[in-house]
Amino acid sequence: MNGADTAFVLVSAFFVMLMTPGLAFFYGGMVRVKSALNMLMMSFISLAVVSVLWVLFGYSLTFGPDTGGLIGNLDHAGLSGLSPDSLTERGGIPVLAFVLFQMMFAVLAPALMSGALADRVTFGAWAVFLALWVTLVYFPVAHWVWAEGGWLRELEVIDFAGGTAVHINAGVGALAAVLVVGKRIGFTKDPMRPHNLPLVVLGAALLWFGWFGFNAGSALAADGTAATMALNTQIATGAALAGWLAYERLRHGAFTTLGAASGAIAGLVAITPAGASVNAMGALVIGVVAGLVCSWAVGLKYKLGYDDSLDVVGVHLVGGLVGTLLVGFLAVDGVGGPVQFGKQALGAFSVLAFSFAVSWLLAKLVQATIGFRADPDDETAGVDQAFHAETAYDFTAVGGSAGRDPGGPPAAPGTAPRPSRATKVDA
Amino acid sequence: MKLITAVIKPAQLDEVKEALRAFGVQGLTVTEAGGYGRQRGHTEVYRGAAYTVDLVPKKRVEVLVPDQDAGQLVDVVVEAARTGKIGDGKVWAVPVETAVRVRTGERGPDAL
């Protein structure tokens, strides 16, 4: 066992865990006040559901012995057959470290879709959809791309850390779900501004940080590949942030904070499949292109009329495609070229078609059985109150001045604003 | 009695409160308000989607005063609320028929 590699992969797994709460904040700040908590919970619930499914059968279906290039078997269901002494086939690290690392990927992938469905789905139905999706879409696709015997891996499609398996997959899954669930009430009519942009930036920063674990950790070793990947992650992200801001300044007249946060995520998405196969200049190109193309692509929903609320399609699907396709040409060491590009396109569009079809069917199934869409009254009043019996902020306090001594007598007792009276509900 | 109502910039609230206190006004009521005047609103852009924000946030300050103070107090509030820039708001006064202090039942100017 290699101690350095093991330590690196374990710490990377911890980094990737932080991405899901980071995503929760990134999305949570972008929705309106009335569904801020629901947005956080839609990501957070994935940490619960997928962690359980992963040990029950997820790891085994994804990385268990291959069946026809399509899916693993159930040899490792319940993590049976894996002990603390089991090492990965390459010999470097305990299998359990790899199980943990990949678990965090499986947690993050379905959570990415939640932003598209903001404000309007019942929480229980989302949890069910998430469990079905990760089982029938994510586990197979991750097997195709990364597992020994997976057909895209055998084809030598480059997807180092999951541009295809995670981002194209979740992006198109989100599109399918949105087409089933429908638009938010008031889409394009009511103002739907982000309620807390500092929270969005905080979320983007946590994602950026965690993404070093996601990308560099995928080397599964503390080596030159990990270093290349980490460096290229930073280069592409910075370039995409700049690209997005440049597009916005020219097109809309301002450098927006939301644009900066979005550009960073677009760059991170695009470099994810590609970063270990390109040099620094290649990473720069991927970043700039991702920033420009994604900032344009987020406007498509208005032209085409689908309500992808927080632009999961525009950022993750489009960004994933940018990285997955560009690496076909930009890969170094004589790999890049028309042949590799063809493989990349085949991989990307196979996943796109499979994920769209199965995600659409699963969303329809949930819609037809337990109902996916929230009641219109609940949606209008806010899903926070409807499904969580909470509101994110207390707006009852008004008045008061800050940091100035009024010079008058101290306020009489009982004149301070009282907290609003909470009504206890005994169910 | 008169009711003086001032719709002002939120940032001027402290100035106005201070000026009223200095004048000897005992109490006031402040509410969050939104509105526009000749300046209209402004436009914000989120991922390329433009939102026209035409209700600008304001504070609405209400003070009940004896008739003889009303004229002077309007000037005091206007002075304190003024920044000289567009969107400073409006101040007006209307007659009030009656006022009662809830705790004691005092009526008219005694209730102020």
List the helices and strands and how they pair.
The complex is a heterodimer of chains A (427) and B (112).
Chain A: H1 3-28, H2 36-63, E1 66-67, E2 71-72, H3 95-113, H4 123-146, H5 151-154, H6 163-181, H7 197-216, H8 224-252, H9 257-274, H10 280-297, H11 300-304, H12 312-330, H13 338-369, H14 376-381, H15 383-388
Chain B: E1 2-8, H1 13-23, E2 29-35, E3 42-46, E4 49-53, E5 56-65, H2 67-81, E6 89-95
Antiparallel strand pairs in B: 1-5, 1-6, 2-5, 3-4
Mind explaining what this structure looks like?
- The complex is a heterodimer of chains A (427) and B (112).
- Chain A has one domain (3-378): Ammonium transporter AmtB like domains (Ammonium transporter fold).
- Chain A contains 15 helices and two strands.
- Chain A has helices at residues 3-28, 36-63, 95-113, 123-146, 151-154, 163-181, 197-216, 224-252, 257-274, 280-297, 300-304, 312-330, 338-369, 376-381, 383-388; strands at 66-67, 71-72.
- In chain A, strands 1-2 form a two-stranded antiparallel sheet.
- Chain A is globular, with a radius of gyration of 23 Å.
- Chain A starts with a helix and ends in a 39-residue tail after the last helix.
- Residues 410-423 of chain A have low confidence and may be disordered.
- Chain B is an alpha+beta fold and 112 residues long.
- Chain B has a single domain (2-111), classed as Alpha-Beta Plaits (2-Layer Sandwich), CATH 3.30.70.120.
- Chain B contains two helices and six strands.
- Chain B starts with a strand and ends in a 17-residue tail after the last strand.
- At the A-B interface, helix 8 and helix 9 of A face helix 1, strand 2, strand 3 and strand 4 of B.
